[in-house]
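Re-run requested by the PI after the first attempt was lost when the workstation crashed. Everything re-entered from the original request form. Ligand of interest: guanosine-5'-diphosphate.
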Amino acid sequence: ISEVLDSGNVSYQQLLNELFAPGFDKGSCLSRYEAILYRKPSPHKPSLYLIAKLRTYESLHNHCGPYTESYNKTLEQLKSGRNIGTTGCNYVVYTPLSGLGNMMLSVASAFLYAFLTNRVLLVEFGREIADLFCEPFPNTTWLLPMDFPLRNQFENFRQEYPRTYGNMLKKRIINISMKSPPPAFLYLYLAYNIDRYDELFYCDQNQDQLQKVPWLVIKSNQYFVPSLFLVPSFHQELSKLFPDQETVFHHVGRYLFQPSNEAWGLITRFYQAYLSKADERIGIQVRVFDTKTTPFQTVMDQILSCTLKDKLLPEVLDVHNSVASLSNNQSLKAVLVTSLYSEYYEYIKGMYWTRPTVSGEVIGVFQPSHEEHELYGNKMHSMKAWTEIYLLSMSDVLITSSWSTFGYVAQSLGSLKPWILYRPFNGTTPDPPCVQAMSMEPCFHFPPRYGCKAKVNIDEGAIVPHVKHCEDVGWGLKLV
Ligand code: GDP
């Protein structure tokens, strides 16, 4: 591998479409250089404008990153509680909520927001998350220092926390007319249950106000990028950065989230052992949100109905004793199943082991782990989740579950338009069982509904042609 990369015929820059800055230490993040050897090159080139802006962002992050002179100065304002004007450095501090998929989507959204407003992004990750990824920006860190003064307030930071921007607007502690000096910091609550005051974040007038606040702490578990496209003052810049709107998470996600060496070991060993030799790789992501109301057989029937109907997988002969003739098509398909449970994998593996396929194709079925329960704060659990998201993104064909951010991350990183399994209700298999996604972008599950100008609820899926309602979440928004 290193010979290929060091041969000098292709520079790292060319290999990676120039998304990454030169000057990284290769050994500290092998995936950044080796990913190209495992996955198909992206069919989507980032715009030159995006590349240039990323380099500008990286210098800003270098200038303002943790413990730089400017960082220390801006921190003084936070400690004294007084906003004494600009130091040239303003920040978005991201604090997580929910599982890995939700977190990756909201970090990418917070990064894009920071990017648009000339702020530096710092993330509050525990070791169990920090160890999954390489540092994305050269010669600095994106990790929020342990001694950051507001850290001890973060656990109180929920929707009802009095110091959120929404609550301060509601109680008229701050108002939009800007009579009082802007505070040194504000909490922005942008999660699944925002109210109409939190939603004012998405209004231009409020963005003008926020611009003067050096520290913005964001708590989110949402992919709120589609609504940034609906903020008039961001729209033009976003269109220049992403002439193809469908590629936002594809580029931002690939830029920010490269597997750490430990994660890369898990990914590449599994890939080489089970997936690399296949003629085609099919990922099936089975996310069951409520096992009581969604029985196994209902979901299994749905998966088979979707994959067989759309010819994603071959049918099997109804006989056990036939042997596929050697003259048949003997191509090898590898099916990667990811799920918290093992029963879906067992069923599909058993089906293709005990019976021959009609087409003669040979089907191998694999599942890296079955963790049974979601866990928080456990490094190996998160490492497996990240590995599986990444392996799914290396598929040629992807089937995902409705509502799952785990699947969204995989589809966008892999530039795939997945077949989405509709969410079963009342224990019955939906008809049709699945639908192919319009675009590879993730869905913003809980977008704002309160129009800034109209002052009444509006349909945000009807404002511009490239922001539509999602296939799996009727009121959600996605870029197409
Ligand atoms: P979502 O809840 O489906 O939107 O996805 P999230 O990633 O936000 O949260 C689900 C969490 O459950 C993951 O982060 C994992 O911790 C765990 N999980 C769910 N499905 C799987 C799976 O297929 N494999 C593994 N290893 N973990 C999973």
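Saved to the shared folder this time. The chain has 17 helices and twelve strands.
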